[in-house]
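=== RUN LOG ===
request id: a7f3
mode: sequence -> structure
chains: 1
length: 195
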Amino acid sequence: MLTEIIREAWIALKRNYTRSLLTMLGIVWGIATVTLLIAYGSSFRNILVSGFNAFGKSVVICWPQQTSEQPGGQRAGKKVVLEKSDLDMVKADAPLVKHACLETVKRPGISYGDRMVGTAAIRGVCPEYGEMRNEVPAEGRWINAADELERRRVCFLGGRVREQLFSGRPAVGECADRWRALHGNWRDGTQDPVE
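=== RESULT ===
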């Protein structure tokens, strides 16, 4: 019985050679396409998950903005500014919040010797920020409570800024300067302040 089925299938394949070839090609193409789509989707998912994990796990970020409606009888468009008292209130009244931190972002230039980085973001943060945002140092360490308490002038450089300033040399222990170039003109690496 089994040999009869195989023999009839072989005869049908030989008789309709083109149709058989196109059917097999369609099956192979379908399997390859499904495999590629699954691999692409899996890779895309891994990239997204790693991007979100680099941003921070279970992190909520609040930016100061302005109101779009009239809250509590006040005018629309009122600026909402987050203060230290708001941070203290979150820490006191939200027991499920593990860490809370204010973040100040400025974009001045940073220099080391004759090397200058354009407008890298400089963030003023608390020591808990490193754990919140998954800041893992490739070398050196993250800022700690003693740095904050003793008001040490320390910084944590990202990989691109470190490479632009130090070009592969060790950056730990070096001193990077913040250039005050608010209204400056750049000529041959020097700054001419504009009054």
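=== NOTES ===
The radius of gyration is 30 Å.
The helical segments are 2-15, 17-55, 84-93, 129-132, 145-149, 159-166.
=== END ===
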